[in-house]
TrEMBL record:
Protein name, entry field: Uncharacterized protein
UniProt keyword terms in alphabetical order: Signal
Organism: Litoreibacter roseus
Residues spanning the signal sequence: 1-18
Organism superkingdom: Bacteria
Amino acid sequence: MRPILAILLLSAPIHVQAQDLEGLTWPEQKCVLYDRAVDAAIAHLGSGGLTEEFLTDNRAFIENGCQTPGNVCPRRDAEFELANLLTIMTMNEGMASTFVPFRCP
């Protein structure tokens, strides 16, 4: 079931109303799109296996406007699965793979 779900998520654009992005700069638009992608991916994959630290660090990246390099380090299988899915989803929206906040020390 997960491969089919991943295909559906990856082939469908993130649902954002045009007015949600109107007047925003490209960096601001990317952050809105990323925030929506996170919500959609977690809704489909579930939050089981995601640590509080992973979720909190990711939320901090978004709350800071996605402007500073993130320090979100996936350590568990579920976190890697979410990080990989988000990377592909954001690339499908025209962002570089370096946009996402996934970096480990």
